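In the design runs reported in the main text, the only information available to the sequence generator was the tokenized backbone. The following block is the verbatim input for one such run; it is reproduced so that readers can re-run the procedure and compare outputs position by position.
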């Protein structure tokens, strides 16, 4: 009964008014939490089952990691990332995200669906979608409007992706 009496005698503080700084911090924390949970989920999905000890030597990178690295090495992706950072004063960043956890078979070979995104404090905006072979040696552009896959060479010729940052 004493504990109940102490709680009932406690002074209840009125809620504080929210500031824009508090909202920004809450948004950042929510984004970090979502990223952490996503990374944990991906780690759990890619972890080998039934093994207690890692294999001898350094582990080979996950197939999706090789695909992401290959995409991040494209000059367009590097330029877009630098442009987003500079234009936003560091508030936004370029990122490659896996858009589907399932591999996609193209000509009998597994590919990963990846998109280059612009991450802002408010939202993420897709710039382009790609499919990348697991070994990272073949990259195709996924034209979401037509539904067709086109080669990097054709994409560069038809869309001039480096001009995208020159006009923004």
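Verbatim output:
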């Amino acid at each position: 009964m004493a504990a109940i009496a102490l709680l009932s005698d406690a002074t209840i503080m009125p809620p504080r008014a929210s500031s824009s700084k508090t909202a920004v911090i809450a948004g950042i924390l929510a984004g970090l939490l979502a990223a952490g949970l996503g990374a944990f989920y991906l780690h759990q999905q890619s972890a080998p089952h039934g093994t207690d000890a890692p294999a001898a030597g350094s582990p080979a990178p996950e197939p999706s990691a090789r695909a992401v690295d290959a995409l991040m090495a494209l000059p367009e992706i590097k330029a877009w990332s630098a442009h987003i950072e500079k234009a936003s004063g560091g508030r936004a960043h370029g990122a490659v995200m896996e858009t589907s956890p399932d591999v996609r078979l193209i000509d009998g070979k597994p590919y990963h669906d990846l998109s280059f995104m612009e991450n802002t404090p408010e939202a993420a905006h897709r710039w382009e979608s790609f499919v990348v072979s697991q070994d990272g040696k073949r990259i195709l552009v996924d034209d979401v409007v037509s539904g067709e896959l086109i080669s990097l060479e054709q994409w560069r010729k038809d869309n001039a992706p480096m001009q995208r940052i020159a006009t923004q």
